[in-house]
Structure formats: structure tokens, C-alpha cells
Amino acid sequence: MKKVEAIIRKSKFDEVKKALHQIEVNFFSYWDVTGVGNEKQGHVYRGISYSTSDIQRRYLVIVVSDDFLEKTVNVLLETASTGNVGDGKIFVSDVIEAYRIRTKESGSAGIN
Amino acid sequence: MKKVEAIIRKSKFDEVKKALHQIEVNFFSYWDVTGVGNEKQGHVYRGISYSTSDIQRRYLVIVVSDDFLEKTVNVLLETASTGNVGDGKIFVSDVIEAYRIRTKESGSAGIN
Amino acid sequence: MKKVEAIIRKSKFDEVKKALHQIEVNFFSYWDVTGVGNEKQGHVYRGISYSTSDIQRRYLVIVVSDDFLEKTVNVLLETASTGNVGDGKIFVSDVIEAYRIRTKESGSAGIN
Amino acid sequence: MIVQEQEAIDKAVEAITGDMGALWITLAAILVFFMQAGFTLVEVGFTRSKNSGNIIMKNVMDLAVGSVMFWAVGYAIMYGSDLVGGGFFRSSPSDQGYFFFSADDWYNLFFQTVFCATAATIVSGAIAGRTKFSTYLIFSAILTTLIYPISGSWYWPFDDDAWLNTAGFIDFAGSSVVHAVGGAAALVAAILVGPRIGKYVDGKAQAIPGHNMAFGALGVFILWLGWFGFNGGSQLAWGGDDTIGATSVIINTNLAAAIGAIGALFFTWARYGKADISMTLNGALAGLVGITAGCGSVSAWGALAIGLICGILVVISIEFIDKKLKIDDPVGAISVHGTCGFVGTVLIGLFALDGGLLYGGGAKLLWVQTYGSLAYIVWAALASFVVLFILKKTIGLRVSEKEEVEGLDIHEHGIEAYPEHISQDK
Amino acid sequence: MIVQEQEAIDKAVEAITGDMGALWITLAAILVFFMQAGFTLVEVGFTRSKNSGNIIMKNVMDLAVGSVMFWAVGYAIMYGSDLVGGGFFRSSPSDQGYFFFSADDWYNLFFQTVFCATAATIVSGAIAGRTKFSTYLIFSAILTTLIYPISGSWYWPFDDDAWLNTAGFIDFAGSSVVHAVGGAAALVAAILVGPRIGKYVDGKAQAIPGHNMAFGALGVFILWLGWFGFNGGSQLAWGGDDTIGATSVIINTNLAAAIGAIGALFFTWARYGKADISMTLNGALAGLVGITAGCGSVSAWGALAIGLICGILVVISIEFIDKKLKIDDPVGAISVHGTCGFVGTVLIGLFALDGGLLYGGGAKLLWVQTYGSLAYIVWAALASFVVLFILKKTIGLRVSEKEEVEGLDIHEHGIEAYPEHISQDK
Amino acid sequence: MIVQEQEAIDKAVEAITGDMGALWITLAAILVFFMQAGFTLVEVGFTRSKNSGNIIMKNVMDLAVGSVMFWAVGYAIMYGSDLVGGGFFRSSPSDQGYFFFSADDWYNLFFQTVFCATAATIVSGAIAGRTKFSTYLIFSAILTTLIYPISGSWYWPFDDDAWLNTAGFIDFAGSSVVHAVGGAAALVAAILVGPRIGKYVDGKAQAIPGHNMAFGALGVFILWLGWFGFNGGSQLAWGGDDTIGATSVIINTNLAAAIGAIGALFFTWARYGKADISMTLNGALAGLVGITAGCGSVSAWGALAIGLICGILVVISIEFIDKKLKIDDPVGAISVHGTCGFVGTVLIGLFALDGGLLYGGGAKLLWVQTYGSLAYIVWAALASFVVLFILKKTIGLRVSEKEEVEGLDIHEHGIEAYPEHISQDK
Ligand SMILES: Nc1ncnc2c1ncn2[C@@H]1O[C@H](COP(=O)(O)OP(=O)(O)O)[C@@H](O)[C@H]1O
Ligand SMILES: Nc1ncnc2c1ncn2[C@@H]1O[C@H](COP(=O)(O)OP(=O)(O)O)[C@@H](O)[C@H]1O
Ligand SMILES: Nc1ncnc2c1ncn2[C@@H]1O[C@H](COP(=O)(O)OP(=O)(O)O)[C@@H](O)[C@H]1O
């Protein structure tokens, strides 16, 4: 099992979600985070113009079985991209075990 | 050391927290996330009835030493469960190193 | 590649961020979480005095290449610390792969 | 000058003064109307965000239902005649009959309607976060149709049939008639509904912080504002002595609120080591409720004394009800309106310039004030108990545990009040 | 008594009554002014947080621009003379001329100004979340300078040149003149601007929940409050019969709002199984808009009937416009102001005590009300269409997709309305 | 007609007109009272959420403390006699004596009390987010007991002892007496307290965005609303010429606010490329402060000129104070009330219809206005400096670094204002 963590633009979320559903990745969790990176966003507040690299992003955690990994990553790379600086990152790491709380099943039965 | 990530119902949090304290897991972090999964929640807004699988959940991160892993997972499986679809998931993964910032201790001294 | 997760005091964030920039760690994501630990905070609400160990913390995720790991951790240990209970933790774990969505690059090119 | 002339002038003056009085009462009623928004904000602010939509609905609906029912039935009962039970119930409707219609008394209906809505809305705060919406609607309808109008009929028609009027009871704008009645109903309701899940753990009261102190504060400012209409308008006239009366009422009202807030602030500061925000806000309200009965009969000094007593007392009362009686009242409605309504009424017996104990008037007034106010509390508590008990045995008072834990908004109304909101409520 | 004396008295009474009327109108105007805050809160509350700052700016600016333009030009047009087009346009300015200056009519300018701002602000809600700020400013300026003043000139100067006045049309406080005009402009604007991204997916309407029901509710309370000034103040006098008139208007207004909320509540409850918060709030507004035309000519029963019809109708209308017509109106402005403004005007033909069909007055009034109201809608729709069409072809109506998705606040104004806010909007 | 008769009529008219005036002043005072809520919301909205509870407490308490102290001492000083220092201080109390008691002047006390509270509350915004609560309370008490009443005594008793009245100074509703005084005190306080941590990094001003623009906007609407009472009520009468006076004041007030917002909008839009929300809101307030002095002496054109100048100036002033002087004023109180209060007072010298330079009145008025306003600023600055300097050396002005960084709410009051709130403030 792998954990895919994707940090994407909030504006791309709807598309990404739809695409994930299409490849039958129907289980994940997400929340909003502030990202620091290359992209800058211009602001003005009370006469002070400033540009900040602290930009709101959406953080997705998707735990998938190994055979889903590739297509999940590919879908994310496809649909989350705009081609502009600030599209975000995907990180993949190992998960040792997963449990579904309701049934107490573990292993790949635990993730979806 | 292992990292236990649990995605649970917000309504079960108090119970879970109490149970964790009882087995002396007194250190963890949590935040609220939106979960996509099997459970659906009915909504009505201005005449549009819709059901969404985007439901608020609580995300817990608990880093434990290996010998605490089993009981931590068991406690979570016990107390977070209602038996209904949507009880959530537990993921376990490896942690290479942990540090307590205050003392700069690392290893198992770093986690609790 | 390594994932560094740091749970720090919100009040230390500005300093930490500056220090990270100085060692050229310019990419990370953060959000606010509630931490449960040793520190207690006193509250009063409508005549009920209580002390809670649920304290707001900031959660940082920084994926770095292996050769950046040490200095990243050191900078965090230095700048996030006040010496008082509640300074927080750092966890290090493995990342298998990283992608930059914009360019679809992977590997260390994917992280910064 | 010929008498005739003076009479013509007097008649003209009287007509205009009447119109000016109507203008003041109408504007005062509009201010009192706005108190609904104040109550809503205080209740929303002092409770958790998962129930905010439900609180909004309860407050909008008790105003809506109360407006219709008081027009249809309540007014007729309140100003009716033909007494039963030694003056306790009026069996025939007022001159207007049911479904109020009058050529020249509309402003009075309006003023009384918004008072009625105030009484109803007090209950909503005390049972926030666990009560069935349908049950609340029914109870609120009965309160505005019967319970409150009967209360009013004991005193405010100011006729010989109004037994408390005859007894010499003083309640200028309703510390007892409105607030203690609402507070007593709130007490009974809070007991019967029971505390929110998680409020008492191992018998110890837990803090369940409200989610928005800014809403709470704005609500208190709006209530304070509206109270100038509530008390000042109860002069029921403007012009000459009435101008002096109404404006001195306003000063008393403002001083009592101010010192109530000051009292609660320093009392909590000394007691908890922190200047408690929501208690200070409650302190201002306590001063306002307390002075409502006596604002027309005490001096500025009396107003300060009453306000200060209520501002401190409300803190003690809230703690006592919460920790000792273990009755869960999220916004302090029972203490603010019940306790301070009662105490404010009784304190007139001490501070009334005319008849107060401290001004050499003896204990008579004190006694009348005490039993009058108690009569209101007993009536409201009994009547509420009967209604709520029946509701409990039939459709039930409380939502299911699941609904309560996940929030009334999503279950009763299909949507959160703040759908984008990410919370950290514990 | 000598006639002379009586005359002197009468003159004094008249002067004072005039002053009292001015006081009432001024205070009513202040209440109507506050409705701007109500509109702002409703619109902010019923839309997503990423556009809140933009909505605030639109509401502040239509008030600001409207205040200046109505003073400079609008008033002159509205009360002008020298008719063109069979009474449809007034070609020469009012006695005051442009840039209003009068020794004794300031309160009237103030009252009319805040009405004008109300008409303008209705549009802003219907096109929230995707419209260019600059475009809105221009449109709003034209609406307050020309479109609305011309509407007003058809009826409110109450002179023989006001063709709808001559026709016997009744619109006491502006169900048509203000609300249907605003609603029709909102309809055209919403069509031309098009729906928000994500509102219709595969042809199906999606829910885009507003982010703060508490703001929405506070807004509705403020609007309800302001409406007492809106309708009551339209009596344009106080004293004697006018006191009775204005206060009966206030009662009618309150009853219609109350029953409108009740109607929407139970209708949605039955229909969706949930008591819909934002619809209930809209129901109260629907009752208010509906009764605005007739509040001076119907009984309390008529007010209840009109309020109830509008409270239910608004739900149906919102659904119809949203799901069938697929016009995206985030706050329901078209239904609340347009539909209920029209229906409320027409219903006078049934319920007017003097001339209504149900009171034996025949169908004549019904017919006048219908074509009068339609004339307003057609005029506002046409004029808005011309203006917006030109704007569309020149500077454009809509922000870019990127700006819309990321939020107007950050792109048009450089900062979020809630910079600390972490959202979960979907 | 016999003279006697006319006299009887005149007497009746005078009495009624007096009552009508009292009604207007009372209602105006109620509107001004509500400005406290407006100030609170603006301050809460324009600062970070971690200090919202503290700001609420400061605003509630300066109203509460001010209400009591002005009644007890302030009024007596303001309307006292027996001059010291060439008219600068009144050493013996007013006729009412301390602890105001009067049979017929309550509405005046009320009106003056809410003005006093306004002056006090201005300071709170400028020092938000780092000031000790206890220190603020003491300073606020002294301001309402002494500093402001002495300011008032220079002009508003309108007697020969009021030296600025004698000098021909014009400040209708207090651009200088209230706002510049508050602004100068705010300036001194902000300097002495020092900037918030993180406000200046390497000598460069940083943006610290306020957390809730919707609160800010609602606050501005409430202030704008209240200002109709602030300025209109300062006519201090109603009826005949006073009706014309008060309503023309209201029109001037509204126009100045409107054009102030418009000015700030377009100025910031041109300057920063974005239509700045909080600056536009400040622009409306700037127009209101600016016109406060002259609303009774300028034409609508003059009001527009003053409003526009202030609306643009406030933006420049905020930038200057923030970036050049490096004084941290989170809400712009110094610029809005201080700068625009001063400039608005001085501009009367140009725009007064009677005596203004542009209307051929020569430079005399300009000169009186300038030194009069400067006298207020110097007085308020000096007095505040003395008080705050002593407080700094004794109990201290500022909270500890830890308290400031973690938020005043949790440390001073034991609870956050939004305990469920998850923030992303940086
Ligand atoms: N090494 C990293 N660790 C954690 N989050 C990262 C890392 N690098 C990038 N991110 C996240 O990805 C977002 C986008 O990255 P950014 O550098 O702005 O654009 P791009 O990836 O297109 O170069 C950042 O705002 C941040 O949230
Ligand atoms: N593979 C996954 N990756 C990340 N989060 C998941 C995954 N599967 C489930 N979750 C989280 O668990 C929650 C509950 O899952 P759900 O499928 O609704 O119920 P159940 O686990 O009882 O079948 C989801 O809302 C989501 O937050
Ligand atoms: N084992 C753990 N797993 C996850 N988070 C932890 C863990 N231990 C500590 N934390 C986080 O670190 C924060 C600080 O820890 P705390 O015990 O209060 O102080 P200290 O580390 O100085 O002893 C906690 O509030 C919590 O958010």
C-alpha cells in the first residue's frame, strides 16, 4: 500500500476529484493548507502592497494499493496541472498497514 | 517508531481521546479534514436536495514506539467504531526518527 | 528523499520560516492543528476554570532531499525552541517518490 | 382670555401630544423589535457553530409566530375583562376582540407584540443545542398565545381588574411580566430538556465555549440599544412630564447597564483572575433586566445600586445554576432574565423614591413586589411545565443523540450555518 | 369663539404637524438607510467567502454613488415636468433643478435617496460572484441616475402627469416602483452575466451553499427593521389620521413578514423534509416585498393573505428560476423582489378594501395593478438590457475564469475578506 | 385677535416644539449610542482574531465606564463655570453639580454621554493588539472624566465663558471637540505603546490584515447610520427652521460620507491597481468625520468638497503615519479622526457659506478654525501624554511579548473569541 499526498491548487480540486472517481479512487481525505513555494501572489492591504509566497492549497491524502499507484499519480499529474508555477507536488510513501474501523478489516480491504 | 494516522468521526473524538489517555497515549495532534468515502450525507440548500460524500472527519496523527503500536490501533478500532458506514480508517507507517524540540532528544525519548 | 514533519508553536513560526529560507529550504506546506501533549493552558469560560492540553500548534510538512535533512532538522530544533514544555516534535520519514505537477518531473527535481 | 379659547388650544395640544406619544411608542417598538436580532446573536455567539442555524430559525420563528398569535389571540386575552379565579384569568376578550382591529390603537398592538416576542425568545437560549425544532415551535406558540398574555393581564391593562395593579405592584417595563416570566419558562424548559451531551462529565460541569464572542458582543449592543425603547417606550407617552419621565428612564437604563457590566467585569476578574468576556456581557444585560421594573421609580443612584447588584448577582447565579443545580443554560438566560428579573422587581421595594424601604416607605412595597414577582414566576413555571410535560410525553423534547452530536443544523435544516467552516470544537 | 382665533390655532397645529411628519420621515429614512447593511449581510451570508469583500464593496458603492447621483440628477428627473412619450419621460427637471437645493424639503430628498439606493442594491445579489466590479459600478450609477428615477416619475410625484397615478394605480411604498424594478434589472443582469462556474453541471443545478447563515439572518432582521421605515415612512406624514395610517401600515408589514416566514418554513419542511433556513429567511423578505404596495389599502387579513402567498411563492419561484430557467441568482433577489414585487402589486386588485375584487370592487383595479406593474418590469428589463448589453460588448460583464475560481476578493481588491479563514468550500 | 390669545398659542407651540426637540435629541442619542457597536465591529474586523475578545471588552467598558463617569463628574465639568487659566479650565461644576440630577434635562445628559463615549472609543482602535487591559481602563476613565469634558467646555456650553465660542469658532457636532481630541489621544497612545510585534521588519511596514472585512463593513454602516444622529442631533432642536437645519445637516452628512468612499475607492484603485476594501470603508468614515464640524454651515457642494478631500487625504495620511512615521495604528483611527477631524474643521474656513474664504468672508474664520482645532489637538495630546506616561512608568502600557504573540484574548480573558476557529494568520 502506498500513501499519495498531493498538494494542489484549490481551483483544480473539482477536476481532480472527478478524475479520481473515474479511475475508481473513491476514497481520500483532504484539507486546506498554506503552501510556501515558488509562486507569489500579490496583495494590497491598507496601502501596503506585498507579495507573499504563502498561498492556500488543498492537501489530499490518498492511500492506495500498489497497483493503483501509477494511475493515481498519473491522473493527479494530468488534472491538477495548469502549467503555471504553483501547481503543486505529489509525494509517495509507504504504508505498512491499513484498517477499516467499521469492520476492523486490514490490508487492502482496509483502504477502500 | 510508527506513525498511526486515524481518520475518525468527529462525534467519536471525545471517546477516542479518553481511551487513548487510558492506555497512556498522551501525545498526538489532530485537525479536521473532509473525507471522501462510502458514506453519504443528505443536504438541502435553497430547494436543491443533494447528497455528498464530502463529510467532515477528524484526522489524528499519533507517533508511537513500536511496542505501543498494537494497543493504540486496537483502542482506535474499538472506540472509534459505530458499525455504520463512515467510521473511517487507520493507516500505519514507519517513522525514521523523532525529536523533542524542547530538549533536542531523539528516538523514543522524542515522542513522549 | 525525506519527509520532515514538525509540530511547533504558532508563535515561533515566523522565526522558523525565516531560518528555513536562510538555509534555502524554500518549499513546504503548513496548517494549524490542535496538539495534545504535556503543556497545559488555563482557560476560564462563564465561571468554569479549566486547563486543557488541547493547544493550537502549527504543523509543517517539508520534503527534502537526503543531504538537506540534517540542516533542516537542526534549524527546526534551534529556532522552534523556547525551552518550555510544549515546544513540539519533529518526525522524519521516508518518501519514495516526489513529483512536481507543473513539469511532471520526479525525484529530487520534484521537490524544489 | 375667554375659557373657550383656552379649551380649543388645550384640545389641539392634547391631540398633538397624543400623536407625539404615538410616534415615540412606535419608534420604541421598532427598537424593541430589533432586540430579536440581539437575542439571536447572543445565542448564536454563546453556543457552538453546529447549532447556529437552528438558533436562527428558532428566533425568527418565535417572532413570526408570536406576531401572528398575539395579534390573533394574545392581545384580546391580555386586555380582556370578565374575570375568573380571583382575577387571575380574563375570560372574555378585550374590546378589540380576537384578531385585533382598531382604528386608532395600532401602535399599542405593535408595542405589545414586540414585548411578547421578547418573552418568547428568552426560552430559546436556555435550551439551545438539543431541543427539537417542532417542539420548540409549539411551545413558543402557546407562550405567545396564552402564557405571556395572561401574565400581562395581571398588571398592564392598569385597570381595577388587573389584580397586581390594584395591589400597588410596580413593574414599569416588565422585569417580572416579561423577563422573569421568560426566565421561569426557560428554567423549567432547561430542566425538562436536560443538559447537552458532554456538559456534565462525572458530575462536573464542563465549559462548552460559544463559538463567536463578536456576535455575542454585537448582540449585547443591540439589546442595550433596544432596551432604550423597551424601558423608555413604556412611559407610553411623550411630552411635558412624560418627556422628563421617559428620558430619566433612559438614563437609569443606561446607568444600570453600564454598572452591571462594570460589576461583572471586576467580580469575575477578582474571582477567576481573568476579565471574563461573556460574563461581562451578561452583566450588562443583567443590569438592564434588573432596572426594567424600577426605571420609572428610582433615582440614578437607585439605578446604579440595582444595576451593580444584578451585575454581580448574575455571575453568582450562573455559576450556581450551572455547577450546583446542574442545569445547563448555555447563554445564562435563566440567570439574566429570571434571577435578575425577580431581584430587580424586589429591589424596588428598597429603592423606590416613593414607598421604598430606604426612603422611609416601610416594608409594604417590598412585600408587594416580592409576592407579585413570585406570582409571575410560579405561573410561568407551572404553565410551562404542563405544556412541556405533555410535549415530552407526546412528540418528545429532545433530538436524538446522533443529531445532537453531529449538530442540529445538518439534521433539522439540511445544511450547516457555516458550510465552509473548519472547526476545532472539542 | 372668533374665527380668527381658530385660524391661528389651526395654523400652529399645521406647522407642528408638518414638523412631526418631517421627523417621522427623517427617522424612517434613517431606518431605510440601514437596509443597505441588511442587504450586504444577506448577500455576503448567502454566497461563498471568497467573494465577500467584493459584495461589500458593491453595496457600499451603490449607496455612495446612488447618494450623489440621485442628489445631482435623479431627484430632478423623478419630480420633473414637461412630458415626452405620453407621460413616460419627464424632459425638464423638477422645481429644485439638478443638484437638489431646497430650503424645506431636505427630508424628502433623503427619504427618496435611500429608496433609490435600495433599488440599486437589489441587483448586486443576483450577479454576485462573477461580475466585474467596474461594470457593476457603471450600471449601478445609470440605474440610480436614470432608470429608477424614471420609474419613480410615473407614479410618485402623485401629480396629473404621473400617468400611473392618473390611472388609479396603487403602490404605496414601492413593490413595483422599487422592488420589481430592481428585480427585473436583476433578472436581466443575471441572464446576461451567466451562471457562476460550477453552478450547472451536465445541465443540473448544483447547490453552492452560502458561507454564513448568521450574517444572512442578521441581514434579514435588519431589513425587516428597516421595512418599518420603508412602508411606514411612505405615509409621508404623521399626526391624526396619518398616525393611524402609518401604524396600521406597520402592523400590516409585520404580519406579512411573519406569515411569509411561516409559509416558507412549512412549505419547505413539507417539500424537502427539512426546515430550510435560507428559504425561511427569504420567505420573510418575500412577505415584506409583497405587502409593500398594499400595506396602506388592505386589512390585516389582506396582509396575511398577501404575505402567505408571497412566502410560499418565493420558494417556488426560486426553484423555477434556478432549476428550470437555469438562471443563477445566488440570493434569490429576482424571486424576492421581482416575483413578489409583481404579485404583491397585483394582489391589491383582490384585497384592497376600497376597489378590490374580493371586496366587491370589480376587476378594474386588478387590471390597472397588472399592467402598471408589468410596465415597470418591462421598462426596467429593457433599460437594463440596453445598458448591460453595451457594457458587455465594450468592457465586458464578467471576470476571467481564473479570477472567478480563485475569488473576486483577491483579484479585484487584493485581499481576502477573511484572511485567516481556512475553508472547506467544495 | 387679542394679544393674550396669541401668547397662549405661542406658549403651547413652544412647549410642544421643546418636546419634539427632546424627542429628536433622544432618538439621535440612541443612534449615537449604536455607534459603539460600529466602532467595535470596525476594530474587531480590521485586526487579528486572536485579540477580538479584548477589543470587545475595551469597547464595552469604555462605554460603561464613560456612562458612569460622565454622569458623575464629566457633565459637571463640561458645563461648569468659574474659569481658570484664561478660560481653559472650569473650576466649579455646572448647575447640576456632580452626579447629574435635573428635572428636565435628562435627554441632554444622554446625548452628551454618548458623545463622550465616542471620544473614548476612538483610542481603543489605535492601540489594539498590544495594550494592557487594565491600563486602557484607567486611561479611558480619565479621558471620559476629565480630558474630554474640558474639551467640551471650551465650546459647547455656547456661553461667554466658552472661549472658543466667543472666538467665533465653528464645530457643529465635533470634528475637533470629539474626533480630533480622540485622534490626538490615539496618536499619543499609539506612539507610547509602540507598534505590534512584526509590524516593522527591518524598518519596513508590514501588512497585518484584519480578519473580518464583513464585520468592518457592518461596523461602517452602523457608524454611518449613527452619524445621522451625531450630526443631525447636534441641531439640538426640531421644528420650523430647526427641521430644515437638521435635515440639511443629514443630507450634507450623507453626501460627504458617500463622496469620501468614492474618493478613497478611486484613489486607491489608481494608486495600487486594486480597489482597496478597508481604505474605501475608511474613506466613508473620513468624509463623516470631516463634515461633522461644518455640516451646519456649508452647502451640499461644500459637503461634497470636504468629503472628497477627506476621503483622499485619509489614504495619504494612513500611509504616511504607517510607512513614514512608523506609528502602528491598525484601524487608521489617527488618520480618520485626527487628520480628518482637523482638516474638516479648518475647511470650514474655506467653505462656510457665512464667513468662508471662498464665499468672500476673508481669512478670519480660517484662522479661528485653525487655531481652535490645534488647541484641541494640543490639549488632548498633552493631557494624554501625561496620563499615559505616568501609567507607563507605573503599571506599564504593554502586555508581555508572550501574551501579545499568543493573543490578548487567551491571556487577559481566558478564552479565545472564536474558540472553534482554525486560523492561517501568518
Ligand atoms: N518540498 C516540499 N514540501 C512540502 N510541500 C511542498 C514542497 N514543495 C512544494 N510544496 C507545496 O507545493 C506548492 C506549490 O509549489 P510551488 O513551488 O509554488 O510551485 P511549483 O511546484 O509549480 O514549482 C507549495 O505552495 C507548497 O504547498
Ligand atoms: N484510502 C483512503 N485514503 C485516505 N482517506 C480515506 C481512505 N479511505 C477512507 N478514508 C477516509 O475515511 C473516511 C470514512 O470512509 P468511508 O468509506 O466513508 O467509510 P468506511 O470506512 O466505514 O467504509 C472517509 O471519509 C475518508 O476521510
Ligand atoms: N507522539 C506524538 N504524535 C503526534 N504529535 C505529538 C506527539 N507528541 C507531541 N506531539 C505534538 O507536539 C506538541 C507539543 O508536545 P508537548 O508534549 O506539549 O511538549 P514537549 O514536546 O515540550 O514535551 C503537542 O501539542 C502535539 O501537537
Could you name the CATH homologous superfamily of chain D? Answer: Ammonium transporter AmtB like domains
CATH architecture of chain D: Orthogonal Bundle
What is the CATH class designation of chain D?
A: Mainly Alpha
Strand order of the largest sheet of chain A: 2-3-1-4
Order of strands in the sheet with the most strands of chain D? 1-2
How much strand content do the residues of chain A show?
A: over 45%
Q: In terms of per-residue confidence, which ranges of chain A show pLDDT below 50 for 5 or more consecutive residues?
A: none
Shape descriptor of chain D reads globular
Output the structural class of chain D. mainly alpha
Question: What is the count of structural domains of chain A?
Answer: 1
Domain Ammonium transporter AmtB-like (chains D, E, F): 23-418
Main location (chains D, E, F): membrane
Subcellular location (chains D, E, F): Cell membrane; Membrane
Organism (chains D, E, F): Flagellimonas zhangzhouensis
Describe this protein's structure.
The complex is a heterohexamer, with 3 copies of chain A (112 residues) and 3 copies of chain D (426 residues). Chain A has 112 residues and is of the alpha+beta class. Chain A has one domain: Alpha-Beta Plaits (2-Layer Sandwich), CATH 3.30.70. Chain A has helices spanning 13-22, 66-79, and strands spanning 2-9, 28-45, 48-64, 88-94, 97-100. A 4-stranded antiparallel β-sheet of chain A has the order 2-3-1-4, with helices on one face. In chain A, helix 1 packs antiparallel against helix 2 (66-79). By secondary structure, chain D is an all-alpha fold. Chain D has a single domain (1-236, 245-413), classed as Ammonium transporter fold (Orthogonal Bundle). Chain D has helices at 3-45, 52-78, 106-126, 133-153, 163-166, 175-193, 213-232, 241-272, 277-294, 300-324, 333-351, 364-393, 401-406, 408-413, and strands spanning 81-84, 89-92, 200-201, 204-205. In chain D, helix 1 (3-45) packs antiparallel against helix 7, helix 7 (213-232) runs antiparallel to helix 8 (241-272) and helix 11 packs antiparallel against helix 12 (364-393). The chains are: A alpha+beta (112), D mainly alpha (426). Chains in contact: A-B, A-C, A-E, A-F, B-C, B-D, B-E, C-D, C-F, D-E, D-F, E-F. At the D-F interface, helix 1, helix 7, helix 8, helix 9 and helix 10 of D face helix 1, helix 2, helix 3 and helix 14 of F. Strand 5 (97-100) of chain B pairs antiparallel with strand 4 of chain C, so a sheet runs across the interface. Bound molecules: adenosine-5'-diphosphate (3 copies). One adenosine-5'-diphosphate sits between chains C (7, 35-39, 55, 57, 85-89) and B (27-29, 61-63, 100, 102, 111-112).
